[in-house]
Amino acid sequence: MMQASTHLVRGNFGIEISKRRVFLCFGEVKQRCLTLNRNFCIRSGSTCSGSRSGDVSMGAGLVRAKNGIEIAVRPSVKTRSIKAQASGGDIEDLTPINPQAKSSGAVLPFVGVACLGAMLFGYHLGVVNGALEYLSKDLGIPENTVMQGWIVSTLLAGATVGSFTGGTLADKFGRTRTFQLDAIPLIIGAFFTATAQTVQTMIIGRFLAGIGIGISSAIVPLYISEISPTEIRGALGSINQLFICIGILAALVAGLPLAGNPLWWRTMFGVAIVPAILLAVGMAFSPESPRWLFQQGKIPEAEKAIRTLYGKERVAEVMYELRTAGQGSTEQEAGWFDLFSSRYWKVVSVGAALFLFQQLAGINAVVYYSTAVFRSAGIASDVAASALVGASNVFGSAIASSLMDRQGRKSLLMTSFSGMAASMLLLSLSFTWKVLAPYSGTLAVVGTVLYVLSFSLGAGPVPALLLPEIFASRIRAKAVALSLGTHWISNFVIGLYFLSVVNKFGISSVYLGFAGVCALAVLYIAGNVVETKGRSLEEIELALNPTT
């Protein structure tokens, strides 16, 4: 209900806020405080009208209020320019009373806490590489490659389970509570692996840690996308991949003392407990996703979270966008089978395909063979080879963060896969063309570094960022989980059969196949992926799911 003000307004006014048009049609009545998602002042002679958010619902597009006031609202992407036109025809600027938003830096601490999960993701993936030789001797399996393989691959099996579980937990308990639950297998898994006296205990610990990083892989990008302001969502979302790379590098650095202390591997696994505890504690002080709270009907809690994240000036604006997107509808949360319905399958298949292309493009193969490639170029140090690959990944991810909101997700994906295809072709030719034989070592190193750089610019960070953006709110958590499940399953299968394929066809042919996959990815992205740069999650949802 609108509350009367003391000012007198005469004549008809047309107010245009960019693409939102608000019409006030009345005769000589007392000015009413109108509900908009901006505070502004209309000056016409001595008349001043102030509006305040929060009193009138605009979700239906046309709201008829009492006293002859009619408001027609059409949503827009950006609302910046505000003008008023009096009945005499003069156009006047409407000066905002309050700024649109407080500094977007307010969300950074909460993004940083969430990214502890991403860092643990990278750390647990990388920690076994340097430690495997030493823990195998300590556990009595130095010659048992089968058991060593189980220690490595059990993490991926656990991650597959965790990625599917994460979506259900995030829908049921919320994002922050799921992070806290996620810390449990992360802490227990790290403890078991650090104190293991038998192979069985080590495998159990790796499986639990895998469940933890699987849950993290699903909810870190989900939470970041739902709390980030639209204008910097791409940059903040790509930080997820950056922290994964930092975690891998941290695992590499943690392995440096191994040569002088063979039992150091236990400390390497044990230190992962610290960030897991910090994640649980940090999430106790982090705001819940306003979108999840709104979907649960917890309106006061959603408004409180919005104030914490963006400032009180944007509460009405964000709440209006949530209502417009229909997140307060009576539809129940989607079940797993709903993801395969005609309503959602097209967009869900895009998410699964992006992660499938990411894995089939050969990133794990390049990293696996990087040591041998660098040795062929005269770089004998395994640590130096891994450091160069890791540094390239971190550097590319940092560049991607700065480009994500300027170049756009789709553009970076296509550029990334194109660069990966060219790099794979270079790697393949460096092993087969006799004319390139004198330069094969150098070309192989250049191809490897360019491939990793290209991957980190788009194929690495974009899928995890793009998926929460393109999925409708009622399927978002489960659809992200399903896509991440595709990632982990394909990762596991490729790791299982990769060496057999290389032995049968040769590394050059395999690299050529990867180049073909990258080229197919470019064509698929061009025809099926939408650009989400500069659009709120609600606007994207309305565009892709008009019936939701």
TrEMBL record:
Residues covered by the Major facilitator superfamily (MFS) profile domain: 110-533
rRNA processing among the record's keywords? no
Identify the CDD domains for this entry.
MFS_GLUT_like
Q: Which UniProt keywords apply?
A: Membrane, Sugar transport, Transmembrane, Transmembrane helix, Transport
Does Nucleus count among this protein's keywords? no
Which GO molecular-function terms appear in the entry?
Answer: carbohydrate:proton symporter activity
One Gene Ontology cellular component annotation held by this UniProt entry: membrane
Q: Which InterPro entries match?
A: MFS_dom, MFS_sugar_transport-like, MFS_Sugar_Transporters, MFS_trans_sf, Sugar/inositol_transpt, Sugar_transporter_CS
Where does this protein reside within or beyond the cell? Membrane
Membrane protein topology class: Multi-pass membrane protein
The GO biological-process annotations, alphabetized, read as:
carbohydrate transport
Task: Show the SUPFAM superfamilies listed in the entry.
Answer: MFS general substrate transporter (SSF103473)
Q: Which residues cross the membrane?
A: 106-126, 146-167, 203-224, 236-257, 263-285, 347-371, 412-431, 443-467, 479-499, 505-526
Q: What is its main location?
A: membrane
Q: Which family does it belong to?
A: Belongs to the major facilitator superfamily. Sugar transporter (TC 2.A.1.1) family.
Q: What is this protein called?
A: Plastidic glucose transporter 4 isoform X1
Please report the organism this UniProt entry assigns to the protein.
Gossypium hirsutum
The organism that produces this protein has a lineage beginning with:
Eukaryota, Viridiplantae, Streptophyta, Embryophyta, Tracheophyta
